[in-house]
Amino acid sequence: MVQGKKNLVEDAKFSPFHMKLTIYSSGGPFLDGYILSIIAMALTQITPQLHLNATWSGLIGASALIGIFIGGFFGYVTDKLGRQLMYTIDFIILIVASILQFWIQTGWELFIIRLILGISIGADYPIATSLLAEFSPKKHRGMMLGVTLVAYYVGSTVAYVVGQLMLSIGPDAWRWMLASSAVPAVILVLLRMGTPESPRWLLQHGRPEEAEQVLKQVYGEQASLQDITMPGVSKTKTSYWKLFSGGYLKRTLYVGLFYMAAVAPLFAMLTFGPEMLTSYHLFDGAGGYGAAIISALFLIGCIPALFFVNKLGRRMMIIVSFAGMTVGILLLGIFPHGPVLLILLGFIVYAIFSGGPNVMEWLAPNELFPTAVRGTAVGITTCISRFGAVFGTYLFPWGMKHFGIGPTMLVGAAVTFGGLLVCIALAPETTNKSLNAASSVSSRSRGRVTG
After folding, report:
1. Is Aminoacyl-tRNA synthetase among the key words of this record (predicted)?
2. Of 139, 238, 249, 414, which has the maximum CB count within 10 A?
C-alpha cells in the first residue's frame, strides 16, 4: 500500500456484505450458547430418567466443551485448506449430531454425541472468525468480532426460554430440546452458501488472481492486492510451532490464559444455571426463565464493551473488565446467604464486566497472529481456554455438593483474579492498527511476517 493512500480494505465503510458476513459468522457462537445452555434445562429431566449421578451430570455438562477443545485443532486445517471450504461442512456435522440426540438411551451415548457437537462448534470458531477478521475494516473489526460473542448469549438466552416452554411437552421434552439445535443449523448452512474465500488466505497460498478477483467483488474495481499487503513484510508458513516461538509465545500465553480465566466460572454458571439459582433461592430455583435472565445479563454486558473496545483501547478495557468481574464473583462467594439484592448485585457486576473479555476472546487471537497461522491461533487458544471450561463445568456440581455455593464461587473468584494478573502482565495494545500491523512482531523477536 502506498503511504498516505486510502486503503480500500482497512478503511472501507461498513457495507451490506460486512453485515451479512457478521451475521453468518455469528451462527457458530449462537449455536454454542444454545447447545451449552439447553442441556441445563434438559438435565432436569435427563438426570432422573437416565439415573445419572453427579459424575455423569458433570461429564455430560462438560462433553460439548471437551469437543470444542478437540475441534480447536481444526484451526490448523482451515489455515491449510481455506476458510470457505470448512465454513459449511462443520455445520452439516452439527445438524446430524443434533438430530441423533433425540434417540439416545444412555448417559454415555449422550456424552459421545455431545462430544461430536462440541467438535463441530470448536472447528467453527477459527473458521468463521478468521474469515470475518480478514474481511473486517480496522475501524469496525472490534465491533464485528465482538458481535459474535453477543450471538453466544443470544443463543444461551433463547435456549433457556425454549427449554422452559418445551417442558410442557411432557417427560420426553428433553429429547425435543436437544434436537432443536438442528433448526438454526440448517438455516445457517443455507445462508453461508456462496460466501467468498478470504483474499488474504488466497494470496498467502499463491493464488493472487483469485485474491484480487474477490477484492474487486467485495470492495470495487479499484481494490487491489496492495490493499492487503504491507511493504517489508515477508510470508510465513502454517505451523503450530510459530505460536510458541519468538514474539508469538507471549501472545499465545496472553490469549489462552485470559480466555481460560474468563470462561471457567462463566461456562459453569451457564451450564448449571438452574441448579445455581436454586442454591441462591433466586427466580424460583430451576426455572428456565430465571436462568434466561442471568444469560441476558451477560448479553447486556457485551453491549458497552463493543463501543469501549475502540474508545478505551483493547488493553485498558480488558484489565478494567477482569477487575470488575473479580469484585462481582467475590460478592457471590462471600455472601451466599446474603440479601437477595446483594446477590443480584454480584451477578449484575460480574455479568456486565464480563463483556470486555467476551468481546476480546476472538478479537485478540485474530488480530495478534498473521494469516498463515490465524486459524491455528484461534483454535489453539480456544483449546487452552477449554481446559478451564471443562474442569470448571465438571467440578461445579461436585463443588456445590461437597462445599456449597459460597466456597465454589470463591474458587471462581481466584481464577478470575488470575486472569486480571495475566492481562496486566501480557495484554498488548492493537487499537486502530491495520490487521497486518497488529499481527506483526518486531524483527528482534522473530522476524516480520504477513498479516
Report:
1. no
2. 238
Q: Report pLDDT digits (tens) over 108-144.
A: 999 999 999 989 888 888 888 888 999 999 999 999 9
Q: What's the predicted TM-score (pTM) here?
A: 0.81
